[in-house]
Fold:
Amino acid sequence: MLSLAREVAAHDGGWLNASRLFGGSVSAQGIAVYLTAEDDAIEIHNRLNALGSIPPRLYVVPLPDAGGAIPLFAPNPATRAATTTPAWTDVEHQLLAMTRLKLVVFDPLQPLCALDLNVPENAQFVCSRLAALAAITGASVMVSHHFAKREAWTPEQAREAIRGTGGLVDGVRAVYALWQARNEDAKAVLKALHLPFQRGAVVFGGVVKANGRANLKVVTFVRDDRGLLCDRTADLQRSKTTTEDLLPQLKQAIAGAAVDGKPYTKTGINGVYERRFEMPEAFHTIGKHTLVAMVETLLASEAIVQAMADRSKSVKWLDVPDGELAQGDPSFSVGFIKRHGGQLEQREGASNDD
Structure:
């Protein structure tokens, strides 16, 4: 959120060089105010220096160095009803005095709120005051909030894990959640990006509630050497190989296996899925139905054919149309096929046994 505040303050208004954060591009420019109840001035300076130069329109208030976090919302001493505090009034007046104010961030909400946010009425009151602040200043108002202590692996689970009553989620226009990737997912992401595995390096994010149109795609963030979460979704998309891209490799693997005397079948004990670990590594994680469908695509385009071998009663062995097996001159061999540099290497002797 500090990065977002900095980008809003530094943005020149052009869409060509607009920074992307939280899955979207920055579209507003102006003053950004960031109030943090947890980080002190030293930590804020370290984080800002990691982000780059500090733009003049960015105002950051580290409350621990300003006397500590003071509640902006608290129960009325007499009625116990939810109300704002004098500190809220002071903040509101200062923000109204700023021209071209575009973003206000309260990070996080909990230390600034002395109300029990598990009570729906309290959550609704806080949200109504935040909405009113946005309306009178013309700025976007954002707050950060923590998850409850439960697992969250999907956008739906992340929404349910947000601490407090559902009224807090229902009372704002949009909610963006960040959740930790499972180890197996993190390893797959880092492997695709050619990065070493580190615990906590991969985080997923996405809009889990929106009153209007929103980009609901899940974004993949990877922590860089500075400790900053960077959007690597586009890099992952570029690194992914589609099944269509893999068809030439599958055809080559089928042809090579037939030449080596150990042809594949579409399914069964000699099926391409059952023997996929003989193929290049890209095929190892492809599902059975997908891999069989790829074979069917090659068969439909006549890039490969199914042939019958001597003393066989079924047309099942896969080969390229001009291969020896397809032409009726099969050569079956014993031993196994070892993957080597993405190619298939025959091991041990040969025979003509089906």
